[in-house]
Known about the structure:
Blueprint: H1 3-22, E1 28-31, E2 47-49, E3 52-54, E4 56-62, E5 67-73, H2 75-87, H3 94-115
Parallel strand pairs: 1-5
Antiparallel strand pairs: 2-3, 4-5
Amino acid sequence: MTPEEQAEQILIQMFAQAHAQFGNALKGYWFYEPDDCPGCGRPVDVMKIQGKEGLSVNGFIYRKRGTLIGYLLCHRCANEIHRSAQKRPGVQIGRHDIIEKNLAAAYEAHMNRMDA
């Protein structure tokens, strides 16, 4: 299975869990496909997780459209978020705001292309 296929399977699982929790408020999912990190614009790359290489697969619920947006982060942004979560669990940092803003803009642009 390719990394893209693995990410798609993870997104499907995330959607099923979120749909079970939020019901009809969640209408669908979309995967942010650009190779740049939505947190900083650097290329998405692998990171070391417990001595193994992996990708940081994440999800953001875009409430305005009821859509789960799946995305990958570069190792720097993923590590920044993980370090912050260890110090202050459940507290969003500024990087989250940047990611959410960029994902929402990308999704709106995607939807506008679909409507054209």
